[in-house]
Design goal:
Layout lengths: L14 E2 L5 H15 L1 E3 L8 H22 L1 E2 L5 H30 L4 H27 L6 H10 L1 H4 L3 H19 L4 H17 L5 H5 L3 H10 L1 H12 L3 H22 L4 H28 L9 H25 L6 H27 L2 E3 H8 L1 H14 L9 H30 L4
Parallel strand pairs: 1-3
Antiparallel strand pairs: 2-4
């Protein structure tokens, strides 16, 4: 033990594990903690703050397990599952964020949006990166100078920690949603704009694959938020059914998501290209039938100026020809447009299934104190866990993985609670209105 180094960076050296089945132990411990911390809940509703918090707790757990399994050697027994779990965890955060933010903006408007919302992300982010950079400067010989390091905290976050792609991505969506309210778009226009941006993201060859895989998650969350009453009613209707039927929905959702994820890798150029073309053809046919139905049956007069029709055709021609070129160049690559669309579909279906699973606690009038605790510190856990998991592992490499992970998890939970309190104090000091 005395000869062991102070820390190990797992970007450079994989975490050597002594038990390939350690992930099964983690799952069992996680399930046990969820059930042992069940508490009574009164008058709770689907997608309430308490429900959303439990979803965040589930999401950060999936992300941490994804990260620890990715940097271990040999790979754990359930690696095929954990390799996909991180995207599901990210989709949970994006969907819940879109849902909550759209409801908040509908009720409160955009006044003090950046001070109330963005500050709660930026201050923890800057402090977390400052801590990481401080450790590099003090514990490594190649940490660089402080004058060169400080600008990276604001202007080159990804070079410090790769997980910051998600923070930038969610801030991007926050700003877009803000603009839709600033320009007073209707809900339909707002959703159309957000989903069009999603299509642009998956169409760009240079876009990050993680962003492509979750391009539709935030807009889908906004769609849920704008129609929150309908969504809650549907969940309540499902929960009123017999428990066997509810479980059948859950199993169908999980199996459907798994099938879609597996299926996306089986398509070659011709099949994927044909599916896109057929989808466009079907959409055109359905649109024509729908407009005919409105005009002849409902007597709805559809006023489309020649300028609107021509403009729409030009945009459609540019986009479809551009995507055709992208298909020609990238369809055989791993992250093509078809992959992006199907991957988003799988993520959204899986998160919808998990939402129903968490909502199932309402049927028994309980909630998980453990998941709620993790949800309360989920942002802090996300920002801190990589620092002591991958960059500066002081604990995991010293013990058998099952013991080491328990110590590590308690460590990052404690640090996240302290970190959350520190950030709260700073936000109140600099933005008293919060």
């Amino acid at each position: 033990m005395d000869n062991l180094p102070l820390f190990i960076n797992h970007y450079q050296t994989k975490l050597q594990i002594n038990n390939v089945f350690f992930d099964i132990y983690f799952v069992l411990i996680f399930i046990l903690l969820v059930f042992l911390t069940l508490k009574k809940s009164l008058n709770d509703q689907p997608l309430s703050f308490l429900q959303s918090n439990q979803m965040r707790g589930l999401g950060i757990t999936l992300i941490i397990l994804n990260h620890i399994c990715y940097y271990t050697e040999p790979l754990p027994f359930l690696y095929v599952i954990w390799s996909e779990a991180g995207m599901i965890g990210v989709a949970i955060f994006l969907i819940i964020s879109g849902y909550g933010l759209s409801i908040s903006l509908e009720r409160k408007g955009i006044q003090s949006f950046f001070t109330n919302r963005i500050s709660k992300i930026l201050i923890p982010l800057i402090l977390a990166l400052s801590l990481l950079q401080f450790l590099y400067l003090t514990l490594t010989s190649d940490g660089g100078s402080i004058l060169l390091s400080l600008p990276k905290i604001l202007f080159s976050m990804y070079s410090l920690d790769r997980k910051t792609w998600f923070i930038i991505f969610i801030l991007f969506w926050y700003c877009l949603l803000y603009l839709t309210y600033k320009f007073q778009l209707s809900n339909k226009q707002r959703l159309l704009f957000l989903f069009l941006v999603s299509f642009v993201i998956i169409s760009l060859p240079q876009a990050d694959s993680l962003a492509k895989a979750n391009a539709f998650s935030f807009p889908f969350g906004c769609l849920m938020g704008i129609n929150s009453s309908w969504v809650k009613d549907k969940i309540n209707q499902i929960l009123k059914r017999h428990i066997i039927i509810v479980i059948s929905y859950l199993i169908a959702g999980i199996l459907g998501s798994v099938f879609i994820i597996w299926h996306v890798g089986q398509f070659q150029y011709n099949s994927a290209y044909s599916i896109i073309l057929w989808a466009l053809l079907i959409c055109n046919v359905i649109s024509t039938i729908y407009f005919g139905y409105l005009y002849f049956s409902k007597k709805v007069v559809i006023r489309l100026s020649s300028e609107v029709i021509c403009g729409t055709l030009v945009i459609a021609l540019i986009y479809l020809n551009y995507t055709s070129q992208v298909f020609d160049q990238n369809i055989l690559g791993e992250f093509n447009i078809y992959w992006g669309i199907i991957r988003n579909l799988a993520n959204i279906l899986f998160v919808s299934t998990l939402t129903l699973l968490v909502s199932l606690t309402l049927k028994f009038k309980v909630y998980s104190l453990f998941l709620n605790f993790l949800g309360n510190i989920s942002l802090e856990l996300f920002l801190i866990h990589n620092t002591f998991l991958i960059h500066f592992d002081f604990v995991l490499f010293r013990f058998p993985i099952v013991i080491g992970f328990i110590i590590y998890f308690l460590e990052i939970c404690f640090l996240s609670v302290v970190f959350k309190q520190l950030c709260s104090i700073m936000i109140k000091r600099f933005w008293p209105s919060n």
